[in-house]
């Protein structure tokens, strides 16, 4: 994986993890009973971001790949369900409106991460084939 | 509160804007990396001043949700180490880590990593600082 992209992704995932963890902590501590599903999703998204940041740092590419995929599915699912039936989400999560509250970074970031992770794998596979 | 809104908060926004601008320039032409490092230092100073000011406001009994105020304050401080994250990719830093997958960066790559981190931190810091002013009802 491109080292520049890798470290920038680590930085951005760390920032998003920090933001999501802070949001989820306040939501769960202060008003969990008002929207338990939404606040659980917020906490889940925070965990996913932190896991991806750590995985990218430690070089656990499969974990980062699975984490980014979960993130992409989550933001698409929560965003779509929010538009289909707004009653499902009494309050906002990080992924509400496809991450519009965070400048759509939650939607764009997994796409960028998956691009670099998959391209890195393809390049490694191609160089392995060339050596064989 | 007036001094915070008219001096400290605008100063933080200015360094955030400079972080993003110099970050964008450095991303494409690594020459201004030295300027970016000066802006990073200025950001540290601005955030420390903001933190001290906000702590002073909280101690003086300003009307605010303390949990949110402390949360956003901690977030602004936690963002600081992410700037200059490129230093973790220097050959010296990598040599001290037994992890074989740790990336080792060339000087131009370090500049680009610092630039990307500066852009992300500049945006996040501006949002967190804006939220602090909202929490204090400005």
Summarize the structure in words.
The complex is a heterodimer of chains A (132) and B (138). Chain A has one domain (3-125). Chain A contains 4 helices and no strands. Chain A has helices at 3-31, 36-58, 61-84, 105-131. The longest helix of chain A is centred in the N-terminal third of the chain and has 29 residues, at 3-31. Chain B is mainly α. Chain B has one domain (2-135). In chain B, helix 1 (2-28) runs antiparallel to helix 2 (33-59) and helix 1 packs antiparallel against helix 5 (107-135). Chain B is elongated. The termini of chain B are close together. The mean pLDDT of chain B is 88. The interface between A and B is medium-sized, with 20 and 28 residues.
Strand fraction of chain B? under 5%
- Indicate the overall shape of chain A: elongated
The number of helical elements of chain B comes to 5
Let me know the number of strands of chain B: 0
Radius of gyration of chain A over all CA atoms, rounded? 16 Å
Whole-Å distance between the termini of chain A?
21 Å
Overall geometry of chain B comes to: elongated
Name the chain pair with the biggest interface and residue counts per chain.
A-B, 20 and 28 residues
Largest sheet of chain B: none
How far apart lie the N and C ends of chain B? 8 Å
Extract low-pLDDT stretches of chain A. none
Number of helices of chain A: 4
Proportion in helices of chain A: over 70%
Quantity of strands of chain A, as a count = 0
What characterizes the major β-sheet of chain A? none
- The number of distinct structural domains of chain B comes to 1
